Amino acid sequence: MRRLLLLLLALLLAPLAASADSPAVRVEAEGFAMVAGPGDRDAARRRAVSDALLAAALAAGADVSGHTAVNRGIVTSDVAIVRSVGRILRHRILSETLSGATWRVRIEALVGEGPGPLCPVRTLIVTAYPATLAVDPHAPAWSGELARTIAERLVERLALHPAASLSRVAERRPTRLGRGGEAFDYQSLTQGSVRLPANGHGFLPTIRLRRVAGPRLELALELKLVAADGTASVQQFVRRVPLPRPSLLGDLSVLVQPQREALASALLEGSDRALDALFDRAGCEPASARLVAAGGLLEVPVGQANGLTPGSLAFTADGGSTEILEIVALRSGSARLRPLDPTRPPAAFAGRRVQFVETGR
């Protein structure tokens, strides 16, 4: 367990010793694990991969300190702290062999400052909600229609991001994003629920248009991505462009001419980088969820649709003791897990938050 504890700390503690300009380091490392019994073969392989990842993190540079407590010759406490130079950005398995009861796994890993552009991208199940529109009364009369065109463009853009899987475009915003709050809501009963699934994210943009000196038209975007548990990430974008020249049709000209599309494109120039930055950050974060007791095991509302595989390992990430769990059943939107330590009862983990690390298969 000490090796596994070291792995989790080495991979996931914020880097303390490296500078922001430190390059990624490519290293090779080996890991070993013993098969404890007939049903332990796959779990032992994952422990060997974890051991190799730890060795790679240490090879790239880490500060390790620890102590061991012994009572009458029996180890009662084995604690280690790792302050890592970087984190595992990517890894691939070079070879794996099972000789007798011992797994031997060799990997190549890229270790550096995370998350960065090299982080593994997970799938975000996204519900796009209607944009909040705020149009300055001094802006041209056609600005409201222009704002709606901009909202459509944003949804089209997010659907192209490799980390985003656009599951639906909702017609209204929910009273509450999570599971609660809509059971007796009138709109939910008459029009159907628009709340987020437990493994989903909601995209909630705010679009502000106002007339400024020049005369120019200013677009201010607040791009918000919210998980079902309420955690949110926000990206801001502001751009100003000259107002169109007056037309014989007056203020209605932008509504009936391609000029509206052209103006939307001009205002949105560069916004793709802001939107990509929002989804890049979220896509680089490991899948996480809270454990729920289920049929003698533990269940999380994330699954294959979120990028999990049978080889994913879960670790507790709530500030308490660091524990590791493996997946025993995997579905599209959920997974069932059990502790890697067979002496730990699953019920002891109920309510704890976990994050996932991919070990290969």
TrEMBL record:
The scientific name of the source species is: Cereibacter sphaeroides (strain ATCC 17023 / DSM 158 / JCM 6121 / CCUG 31486 / LMG 2827 / NBRC 12203 / NCIMB 8253 / ATH 2.4.1.) (Rhodobacter sphaeroides)
Tell me one Pfam family matched here. Answer: FlgT_N
In the UniProt record, does the keyword Signal occur?
yes
Q: Which UniProt keywords apply?
A: Signal
Gene3D superfamilies for this protein: FlgT, N-terminal domain (3.30.1660.40)
Protein name (record): Flagellar assembly protein T N-terminal domain-containing protein
Q: Where is the Flagellar assembly protein T N-terminal domain?
A: 27-109
Q: Which domain of life is it from?
A: Bacteria
* Signal sequence, renumbered to the chain: 1-20
